[in-house]
Fold this sequence. Notes:
Elements: H1 26-43, H2 47-54, H3 62-74, H4 86-92, H5 100-113, H6 119-133
Amino acid sequence: MKLILFIAVVSFSSVYGLLRDEHYGDFFLNVARQLHNKCVPITGVTQDKIDGLKNGVFADDEKLKRYVLCLWIVSEEMNPDLSMHMEKLTKAMPKKITNGVKMYMDCAKEAERSGITEPHERVYKMVKCYYDADPENFIMF
């Protein structure tokens, strides 16, 4: 079940990034809610910060950055060593986003090359890179 999520992820609560709910099935939305509900108490992030991120506001907030990392790790689309699960990411990516996996992989490499060593900072940079490259298809929950 967890492999259906990306972000992110893809990052997604009751509002899901810039893509609308109709781009996902009930199963995906249910998994997204579960991940959100798991990662919010772990990180202590506020819903306001998450809502801002959904709208492209990348606040310099440690709890928000840790929330994004949590989504990726708990969804199992990323390992604790920050390597990506290509197969899981591919399965989770909405069909509407034809180049999303490649973009995330490119952004992950860019974040790695940046020299950032803190996992939450590096994953946040990766997600910001994806947003900057394709804000219309950004997913956050």
